[in-house]
Amino acid sequence: MTEQEMMENWMRNATPGPQHAKLAKGCGEYEVNMIERGQPMAGKAKLEMILDGRVQIQHFKMDYNGMPFTGFGMTGFDNFSQRYWFTWNDNMSTGLFSM
């Protein structure tokens, strides 16, 4: 592969595409209602795009059985592997969840 072909390939893989546009359509602020172990819970989520439309971030807050729960997630699409990816961290864990 020539230097120019490598650069064109890199730029193609680095450019946000239709999958990134689909993630952007889901951005906004949401009221979240869920049931956990039979208990209704409510929270708030804010989703926005960062890195020039390449990654969606999620900020989540709620009261979890009387304790404040905050979480942070990131979702993206890797043009090279043609796969979505997701990470999650929250204040009730010290680990990283990824898919």
Secondary-structure blueprint:
Layout: H1 3-14, H2 18-25, E1 28-36, E2 39-50, E3 55-64, E4 67-78, E5 83-90, E6 97-98
Antiparallel strand pairs: 1-2, 2-3, 3-4, 4-5, 5-6
Q: How far apart are the termini?
A: 32 Å
Number of domains: 1
How many DSSP helices? 2
Any idea what the radius of gyration is? Answer: 17 Å
Strand order of the largest sheet: 1-2-3-4-5-6
Structural classification: alpha+beta
Q: How many beta-strand elements?
A: 6
| Order of helical and strand elements | HHEEEEEE
> Strand-residue fraction?
over 45%
Unreliable stretches covering 5 or more consecutive residues: none
Describe this structure in a few short sentences.
The chain has 99 residues and is an alpha+beta fold. The chain has 2 helices and 6 strands.
Task: Please tell me about this protein's structure.
The protein has 99 residues and is an alpha+beta fold. The protein has one domain (3-98). It is built from two helices and six strands, in the order H-H-E-E-E-E-E-E. It has a six-stranded antiparallel beta sheet. The two termini are 32 Å apart. The model has no long low-confidence stretch (mean pLDDT 95).
